[in-house]
Amino acid sequence: MLSLPGEEARERFFAELLPRMCLNRYYVAEGVRIYSQETWRQVTHTEGRHLVEKYIESVQSYYIEQSKADNHAVREAACACIAELGSKVNSDMVRKHVPALLEALLVCFNDDSWPVRDAACLACGNFIFCFPEESHPYMEQLYPLFFANLSDVIPSVRQGAAASLANIVRTYGQEAIEKVVEKIKRGLAGVEQQTDTTEKYGGLEKGGSTFGVAKRVRDNDPDLHSNQTMYSCGSLAPKMRAGGCMDHMHRRLPEAWETGDGCIYLLAELSSIPACHQKVFDQLPALAKASSLKHYHQHHVFLESICKQLPIIAKSIGKQMFKRHLEAFIDPIFYALVCDNALDSSAASCCLTELSKLLGSSILRARVENHNPTYLSALDANTFIAPY
Question: If you ran DSSP here, which 8-state letter would residue 238 be given?
Answer without folding.
Answer: B
